[in-house]
Amino acid sequence: MTFYSNVIILTELLLLTMTLHVLNYSGFKKEQKAWYIATFLAIMLCAGAEFAVHGLPYDSKFAIPLTILTVLQFSLSPILGVLFIGALGMPKQGRVAFIFLAISFTVEVIAAPFGWIFKFTETEYVRGNGFFIYGIFYFSSLLYLVVNMVLVGRRFRHRDVWTIGMVLVILVAGIIPMTVYNINITYIAVAIGASICYIYYNDLVQQDIKAELVAEQAKLSTMQEHMISGLANLVENRDMDTGGHISRTSAYVKILAENARKDGVYTDKLTDEFIAWLYALAPLHDIGKVIIPDSILKKPGKLTPEEFEQMKKHASYGGSVVKEVLSGITDEAYLSFAADIATYHHEKWDGHGYPKGLKYEEIPLSARIMAIADVYDALVSERCYKKPVPPDEAAEIIHQGAGSHFDPNLVKVFIAHKEDFEMVLKNDTSSQIAAEEVAAADGNTAN
Fold first, then answer.
1. Would the pTM of this model clear 0.70, i.e. be above it?
2. Distance between CA 373 and CA 350 in Å, rounded?
3. Do 126 and 59 touch, CB atoms closer than 8 A?
4. Which of 212, 247, 264 is the last residue of a domain?
């Protein structure tokens, strides 16, 4: 009897803990909480009723109260499975629970006076010849639980049939000793099963929420990419001389950053995320040019000192434009990273750049990398006011600017891997020639 008392105490404490946890848990709606609490309290009531009958000293003068209590227990037990499933989110379980309860309660009330299912004698509680009726109700509820657990699991991407199977094994392991050997450990098995169901369902919900967040993040990232691409194309279309500049500089910054990490330069900062952001946001480095007047931006000759001062403002404008456009659709770190590239890519290592005259490592690493890529591409590209510089000569100019214009550590990396930059330029030039040939052929065909 001590063993049985301990089992019941453990059952009650387990379900009391689960009930308190549900009450304080914010992951479920009120209706969901109500189902779980009803499930746990119903098991506590059934376990308590069974303890009153089998765990306390028997006195025949309490036969009527014990009969009433057992009728409630036997009526409530078959709806435990329905309560489980209601707690696991299946709809319309309230109606099913009412039907189960109405049928079992009616049968128990009718059978109780005649002792068909159970009775209390002068000396003890005994099962009647119709006890199998209660067994049918109980096993029907168990079957309903298992079938619907499988149906519930089908609604989730991350369902685990092994967990469902183990719940069934635990329930059966608790029921067989009761029905075959008259060892009353059913409700501890039901309590454990209910707790596992709760943990399992909560895990399914959390995993699906996580999957939805990942999908939403991917959608948001795609939207950001399209927006960045659109803004970059807007700048490139206005400044006709810089065709291909955006795609090439994006390739250059990635090459420089990856090679710097391989060569042991700034390895603490050049994480995968940093390089991915740098590549994605490099197209926005000249976004501030959308505010520069066409008379300056598209001027075919060299700018006057006054015009150049106006052009220089595109750097400070760039940071403002980035923050206005991307604010609200990305996190603060990503926004700050983008603004740094747009604002500071014309700063110089020795402090003689613009817009703020930052020097050394005051200049964000992203902007220092962008500066080399931007100047290199400007040198090797043709402009209306200049001819392209050969790649070797452009590389030498970058080399000479180490320690004054550019970060000397990054220049070393650039020089060591300048062939990678030349390959980007060569491939881009080949693509442009091919595109021009296709366009010319199309024009000849039309004529």
1. no
2. 18
3. no
4. 212
